[in-house]
Amino acid sequence: MPIELNALETARFGIIAARVTDAHATPGEIDAASREKGVQMLTVRIAVSDLTRVHAFEAAGYQLMDTLVYYGRSLDDLPPQRAKPQGISCREGLPQDAEAVARVARAGFTGYMGHYHSDPPLCHNSCPLV
Hints:
Number of helices: 5
Low-confidence stretches: none
Largest sheet: 3 strands, mixed
Oligomer: single chain
Strand content: 5-15%
Helix content: 25-40%
Radius of gyration: 20 Å
């Protein structure tokens, strides 16, 4: 089966959601598996360098909703460590820190527009994450 159901997105949006797990499956194979499972929203990740696959999905009616950019850096040539600023410490988070961490996360993602916002049929104001 070239897809698997996505329990998190199914619960979040109240529709049957799935993701493609077979990077070589054709749009036709994916569509057949989606119909068999009653999928209403499907996530497919395709490398931007694989233009043949991108174009095949576009031709089959798929729409781009989001892009991912990955950055990397070698750790072999890091500059010397600077002295830590005075009065700042780091420690592992504890259960009693959960609300403070949630406030930081909410502030950090305020105004974030991801692929959920690019798909008009999805709920935008009543969903717990958006």
